[in-house]
Amino acid sequence: MRAGRSRLEPADVALPAGVGSRRVKGLRREEVAVLAGVSADYYIRLEQGRETNPSPQVVAALAHALRLAPDARDHLFRLAGTTPRLRADALRDQVHPDLLRLLDAFPSAAAYVLGPALDVLAGNALARALLSPFGGESSMPRILFTHPRADEVFPERPLVAGAAVHALRLNAARFTDAPEIDDLITELHDGSAEFRSLWADQNVKALTRARKVFVHPQAGRIELTYQSFDVRDARGQELLVGSALPSSPSEEALTCLASMAAPDRPH
């Protein structure tokens, strides 16, 4: 809540700026309380964690007052305990054979399955070739924040890294029984100042449609549009499929990369 109001200015919510300078960035607590239709004292208790049982109606009013996007709104509901927390599948690190076969049904796209901690659980030949510069590292957050070749392969790495942190924070609230998420957060928080800064922003957003740019050492520059799909029978897993525009240089580079990719799936 504190992070949410810090991102808003009075003009964003049709409030007068008032007289004099503001000591802190963003909206005042009293202003958010007015927008949400609650008392300032109650809002302060909520933000400070001294009030722990807000009604769903109050949470909805706060989400509206803070202009939260859908993912952030759902995140606020989970933090308030007004929606059931999800449990990741007990076999969340195992990809069903049917899904493995589906990955290979995308011969001209990079398709892979992510776990709750955004680790690559499986990928088709093209996805493995695309990520081959990172050796055997399967954790996308580790790649983005700690791998020495991350900036070389991802020319827009800060954007991709920010999206990964937002998705990781969302999953940390969604899947409280996934200790690998907490372990990864602790590791990166201790080892990366960039991760600490992004984590402190409190932003949450699921992986949805996104554009990613790769510079592969053999195939060159490849621009892909990714679409994400939840794996319904393995809660916590996501299928990501990245494709290039038809007849584009990226499609040609992807075809070149596919010709170099090993056809067999490693065991």
TrEMBL record:
Limits of the HTH cro/C1-type domain: 22-73
InterPro entries: Cro/C1-type_HTH, Lambda_DNA-bd_dom_sf, MLTR_LBD
GO MF entries: DNA binding
Gene3D superfamilies, A to Z: 3.30.450.180, lambda repressor-like DNA-binding domains
Coiled coil segments of this chain: none
Signal peptide (residue range): none
Pfam families, sorted: HTH_31, MLTR_LBD
Database matches in SMART domains: HTH_XRE (SM00530)
Record protein name field: Transcriptional regulator
